[in-house]
């Protein structure tokens, strides 16, 4: 596989090289390299989020959903909201 590099970023992946502008460079790579990876001249680095980062983000999103649901339930029941619950309300 060949990675096409422009300004230290992978901009294309191909089986074989073809002629490109002099600002672009072909580099050998394995099949794990993807468009968008960084290249420092010897090592490819993924810019994709890790499984841990994805799980953390999903937990944050779920916490916001849960907080809004709690606020709605308390409003319907006529109960007082916490400050965090009140902050979820868009007026």
Characterise this structure.
The protein has 91 residues and is of the alpha+beta class. The chain has helices at residues 51-77, 83-86, and strands at 2-6, 9-14, 25-28, 38-39, 44-45. Strand 1 and strand 2 (9-14) form a beta hairpin. The protein is rod-shaped. The chain starts with a strand and ends in a 5-residue tail after the last helix.
**Structure class:** alpha+beta
Strand content: 15-25%
Helix content: 25-40%
Number of helices: 2
Global Rg: 24 Å
Distance between the termini: 54 Å
Main pleated-sheet profile = 3 strands, antiparallel
Q: Enumerate the spans where pLDDT stays under 50 for 5 or more consecutive residues.
A: none
**Strand elements, count:** 5
Order of helices and strands: EEEEEHH
Q: Widest sheet: strand order?
A: 2-1-3
Quote the average pLDDT.
94
Shape: rod-shaped
Q: Main attributes?
A:
three-stranded antiparallel β-sheet; 34% helix; 91 residues; alpha+beta
Summarize the structure.
This protein is an alpha+beta fold.
Helix and strand arrangement:
Elements: E1 2-6, E2 9-14, E3 25-28, E4 38-39, E5 44-45, H1 51-77, H2 83-86
